[in-house]
Amino acid sequence: MPEVGKAREDAISALRRGVESGLTHIDTAEMYGRAEELICDALEGINREELFIVSKVLPSNATYTGTIEALERSLKRLKLDYLDCYLLHWRGNIPLADTLAAMEKLQKDGKIKSFGVSNFDVEDLKEALGCLSFGKLACNQVLYNLGNRGIERNLIPFCQKNDIALVGYTPFGTSPGAKTEEYKQMSTVAKAHGATVQQVLLAFLTRLDGTFTIPKASTVKHVEENAGALKLDLTPKDLELIDSLYPAPKRDVPLGMI
Length: 258
Ligand SMILES: NC(=O)c1ccc[n+]([C@@H]2O[C@H](COP(=O)([O-])OP(=O)(O)OC[C@H]3O[C@@H](n4cnc5c(N)ncnc54)[C@H](OP(=O)(O)O)[C@@H]3O)[C@@H](O)[C@H]2O)c1
Fold this sequence. Notes:
The mean pLDDT is 97. The protein is of the alpha/beta class. Strands 1-2-3-4-5-6-7 form a 7-stranded parallel sheet. It contains 10 helices and 7 strands. The protein has a single domain, classed as TIM Barrel (Alpha-Beta Barrel), CATH 3.20.20. It is globular. It has helices spanning 5-20, 35-42, 64-78, 96-108, 122-131, 155-161, 181-192, 197-205, 220-228, 236-245; strands at 25-27, 52-57, 85-88, 115-118, 137-143, 165-169, 211-213. Helix 2 (35-42) links the parallel strand 1 (25-27) and strand 2 (52-57). Helix 3 crosses helix 4. The chain binds NADP nicotinamide-adenine-dinucleotide phosphate.
């Protein structure tokens, strides 16, 4: 998110407009520059209970005590006394058991309501599940857009089976370029619903049970457009067409990450 000047003010307005429109899941991380401070300023005066705030610990900080200290720093920047969900940003060299033991302790102490992981494929998730003493993995946040549908083969079914929410990031990462045949066809789908191509993308990426998406928008115009996707129901014919334009891979592929 923009950190200074008018662009920062616009981003604050965008976040506030998003919350008013029902986009109450706010994703940040200790890695995202001064985003946590920006969120703190944006959410001033909004009822905390309406919000679902997620942050992430960097793998290099994710020892047992490092995770607890990183959470405290995030809470301080956000001026909050708890997070709704806390994630390990990606898997590093520190044993998962240490990070997850810290997550369980933080949950027990009321500092986080839930915890999860990010950029984990099936084998990593299995290992993480095996490390838990009493807690539960709330979610796995991974790259998911039209050009990165490999997770539909194994990862999404595994998450559904284990009641782990799949939070897709960078939904607009592969968007049809203007003037392409794909754009023309996606526009036809959009127009039939009185929607935009971006709204169609968001609806497509949240069509499967237990899948969510977290578009980033730092302007009111984009936030309003994205919130409008909540009302959009694609038909089986629309889904079939999008599937043919951007097919999922026919064989297993490594999990994408940016
Ligand atoms: N866990 C991870 O490793 C990881 C990695 C990457 C991202 N993420 C998370 O995922 C979020 C989203 O990912 P992202 O920022 O990489 O990609 P994204 O949400 O796919 O794309 C963001 C871009 O799309 C633009 N945009 C938003 N709404 C639009 C609309 N309706 N029409 C046209 N353009 C629109 C934004 O512009 P404006 O800003 O100008 O509105 C921005 O340039 C991040 O903010 C972060 O929280 C997580």
